């Protein structure tokens, strides 16, 4: 039986691993590209294969267009098709004002959070056009809609992802391809802990975010993953494209 095939970029993180497993449970073979977390990648591969799905795992830098093209080509050759692309990659960065941020850090943030998404979309679209169907979903951030102090580069990159996805959605809609962005507010993940600091700083920042959120808590990783899987696989999402959907408990409403 030929299963549908999903490429997941950065699929070893807190939300990414849930997305990867969820897509496998929904009947997709998985091609996973990751940059770190070797142990998690091995564990995910084992779990997916134990569930009867095929899984291809490659360690590479998704901000390298040559590496991305090579990976996507290998996935297409191995599985024969590409039905879904999910971009879950994110960048660890300190909270710093723009004028205090090293240029190399700014460049790396934009490379990981915007350019890698562009390269991955560019690489899969020809196959999806040939198939006349496909789903592309990127995990962005509400900061891409409204900005965020002390992480201007990340907000700019996430805003770029939204614009990229809307433009691409218009380009490929006639081929039956949908393109959407899931925009979480703060999520209870290891990446949030690393980016916001440790101990008292994290506690104060989390408390401030909770206070500002109408639903009075942070998002849970599974809530973000569920929306991604819905957009990537759900029958009810087949007419949804070019959207940036917030998962923030009402922290932003736009």
From TrEMBL:
Key words of the record: Oxidoreductase
Cited InterPro entries: NAD(P)-bd_dom_sf, SDR, SDR_fam
A single GO molecular function term of this UniProt record: oxidoreductase activity
SUPFAM superfamilies in the cross-refs: NAD(P)-binding Rossmann-fold domains (SSF51735)
Pfam families registered for this protein in UniProt: adh_short_C2 (PF13561)
UniProt similarity note: Belongs to the short-chain dehydrogenases/reductases (SDR) family.
Protein name from the UniProt record: 2-hydroxycyclohexane-1-carbonyl-CoA dehydrogenase
Organism, as annotated: Denitratisoma oestradiolicum
